[in-house]
Amino acid sequence: MSIFDELQQAIIDGKAPVAKEVTERALGEGVRPAELFPNAIVPAMNEVGRRMRDCEFFIPEVLIAARAARAATDILRPLLVGDEEVRSAGTVVCGTVKGDLHDIGKNIVAMMLESAGFQIVDLGVDVPPEKVVAAVREHGANVVAMSALLTTTMVNMKAVIDALAAAGLRDQVKVMVGGAPVTESWAQSIGADGYGKDASAAVETARSLVAAA
Amino acid sequence: MTEKKTHRIIVRPTGVELRAPAGASLRDLLFEQGVEFPCGGQGRCRGCRVRVLEGTAEANAAQRERLSPQELEDGWRLACQCSLGDDLVVELRQWDAAILVDDTPFHFEPRPGLGVAVDLGTTTLVAQLVNLSTGKVLAVRTALNAQARYGADIMSRLQFAAAEDGRATLERLIRRQIASLITHLMVSAKVSGDEIRDVVLVGNTVMHHLFCGIDVEPLSHYPFESNEIGLQTFRASELEWNLNKASTVRFLPCLGGFVGSDILAGILATKLAKSLENVGLMDLGTNGEIVVGNQSKLYCASTAAGPAFEGARISMGMRAATGAICQVQVEDERLVCQVLGNVAPQGVCGSGLVDAVAAGLEIEAIQSSGRLGNGAKEWTLAEPVVLTQNDIRELQLAKAAIAAGSRILLERLGTSLQDLKMLYLAGAFGNYIRRSSARRIGLIDLPIDKVTPAGNTALLGAKLALFSLDGEDGSYTELRCRIEHVPLNADQSFQDIFVEELAFPSSTHVRS
Q: b/e for B309-318, b at 16 or more Cβ within 10 A?
């Protein structure tokens, strides 16, 4: 088993201490930090996404896998500064809309996006539209990703889109939405640019939105 | 070649969606969904009544004979007499059998006159007419909540209420429906409205607000708290109800968040607030409500468990009706399923689902992570009924929400589940669930002798309230001071505990 495969397996199995150990060992053997993303971390999280989609993995397995991925990326991120090979896939401002406190789904999406190379600005839960606008300005975000778990709070996604428009930022940023009650047609009806049915679909959506920008 | 037009039929409450050509008989279509035709589909009885919630179904002469003009106007039809000419949403009348009424004996102080107790549930209504001097129940009526056509669960009901005239529509519907239930009670008991002194209603906070005409907007978003949760009192005349002018209609006060007077009534019925030792009450439904405590302090909470316990969002889920697998046991490593009505199995109800998963864990067809063994996509209980991987995930979400909610309340109380002297289970699901299975899946980790199915405690509590109205105006001020509502969504640890509770206990888990 190559060291890339070892790291990949440790992440899929959700073994954070092993992921940390393998990452450190790889660096010791002279593997460049930038190589570990496309060869181990990204494919591992793609596999986690596939298993989640196929109902093989459920929330706990996904969360511990993401935790293991983070054990590796926490070591690698500081080493990447100035590395020309690693360009951020884009900056995503994410959060759960105002009035809603559900954050498990949003956290999974954020972790999947992070492993896929996006810079994440996580605004947390019960996020008012003004806060999204401020974060987009401050970080020059490419994408806003909003989550809602309640039929009564998903209307606030529209409020975020309106606030971005009022601030004159709507042309600079793509908006994607997701969460249990959210559908593709709802996303279209409020003028969102993209919709993610689940966390792995959200990664695909974010990639294509950035590519199209 | 001419293409024959097809129509879509959505069946409530199962949520099953069917397609059939124009002209097809509703009898054939619904028979396959478990509806029974007592007279054999001749239009001679009313047994196959269905209610058309959306779309048009013509009523023929046989139906005009069997159904009253009011019933016809309300959308009632005889399924055996209807042919398909439109897209339809129909509600099956036969599920009414699953509504739990209350016939528990109780102690009371006699009062003159008659009273009515109403358990106003999100899904179902139960009303009993009671002789206040003898304690005798004179009549009982049940119905599906008429508001349910505008959303099955409380969140979608709130969403409908937010639209223009939405709240007024829901208020009008429920006030009229309860008036009609009371009229039916009077007719069957042969009494006049003049004799009715008091009406007591109990229900969750959303039902309370929608009946009483209070703005539900604060309940639709964080922090899900309303300021107007107290006792609401009406003169029968202001509701335009045909009762004694002096009679009073009371909607008992809520406890906080979504926890309403149905739980307050449950506390009265199970005497939780009089217990010297720590006890608990659980009402398992789409919204699971939990109370734990003793005579000096009680903590309560509601948790969104999702509809799995009621068989909804389960691929072959159905209410506890004819054709539902209601019990599953393992005998000689084989599954033995019990089907309601002793017919061929058609689906699985909440209690059957819990049993099935417990059995699956036992024979290792299901792993403790919830994953089906051998990477299977589905698991056959009894042909043609299967559980899918996703069905098991839905149950995991429901049980984790309840288990996490209980843990947080018990921590507040400074105790653990194992130290509870008794846990009462309220409601239909609590009445039918097998306690050992509830334990096996980690829903309620207690030996069965410490869990008591307590029936419809909301209705019993509402009746007890009727008898105490001479000394207590129904505001229960002192009692409510001892009950603290804990908003679970604001509890930092809730989501972590919820994730922890998603897995099933492993087989090495100590059990007695």
A: bbbbbbebbb
